[in-house]
Design goal:
DNA polymerase, domain 1; 2 domains; Rossmann fold; HAD family hydrolase; two-stranded antiparallel sheet
Length: 215
């Protein structure tokens, strides 16, 4: 049994450790209302998916580290513009830039996130068993603030984020980068996440034990 223990267990972030409170549409619509724009949350939910997928993976391999924050901001701004354009309310904003700045920084706080009931207990049990923990996420650098706000930061020895390493799941390279931080071979690591493709299958392809968490 002892020989089967992993050296490291990695977790995905959004959808695995915590999720959106309500829906993206509810949050976007509520903040848009503060800027005088009325739109149904369901309309935003309908428009957001295609806009998000069309943007491609949030990974910027050729960006200088000093420019990364601005690139992340622009990536999400483009998604927001496409979402509200598809929802046919973009012209209603008197100051879209001010709206988006509020929206972007809102998602760096604990407010829009729902910490799953089993997250703290699960991480505590693994840590108490002497197994190292890490995060592998297709998020951006706001993840550090979110993990801190949700009191999760201290659990993790490493945090590997697609925008920072220039490659996103399901590419096996992001798993390789994460493993290198622990001097760990793939067979001695697990990865747990809610996406069948980006977490379970991608981790398995990279040589880790992939575990699909179905929330």
């Amino acid at each position: 049994m002892e020989s089967s223990r992993p050296q490291v267990i990695f977790f995905d972030a959004v959808g695995t450790l915590f999720g959106i409170k309500g829906s993206v549409g509810q949050i976007y619509a509520a903040i848009a209302q503060q800027y005088g724009v009325e739109v149904a949350p369901q309309t935003i939910d309908w428009a957001f998916g295609p806009a998000f997928r069309a943007a491609g993976n949030p990974a910027f391999p050729d960006v200088d580290p000093s420019e990364l924050a601005a690139r992340e901001y622009t990536w999400w701004r483009d998604v927001a513009i496409a979402t509200f354009n598809q929802a046919d309310v973009l012209p209603q904003f008197a100051d879209f830039e001010a709206f988006f700045d509020t929206l972007f920084h809102h998602f760096a706080t604990a407010t829009p996130w729902d910490l799953y009931d089993d997250t703290i207990s699960t991480l505590s049990q693994i840590r108490d068993a002497g197994i190292t923990l890490g995060v592998i996420s297709n998020f951006d650098s706001r993840l550090y603030k979110v993990l801190e706000a949700l009191s999760l930061s201290d659990f993790f020895r490493s945090i590997t984020i697609s925008t920072e390493v220039g490659v996103a799941k399901p590419d096996v390279q992001i798993f390789q980068v994460a493993l290198q931080q622990h001097n760990c071979v793939p067979s001695q690591a697990w990865h747990i996440g809610d996406s069948l493709e980006e977490d379970y299958r991608a981790a398995t392809t990279a040589g880790l034990r992939g575990i699909w968490l179905q929330r």
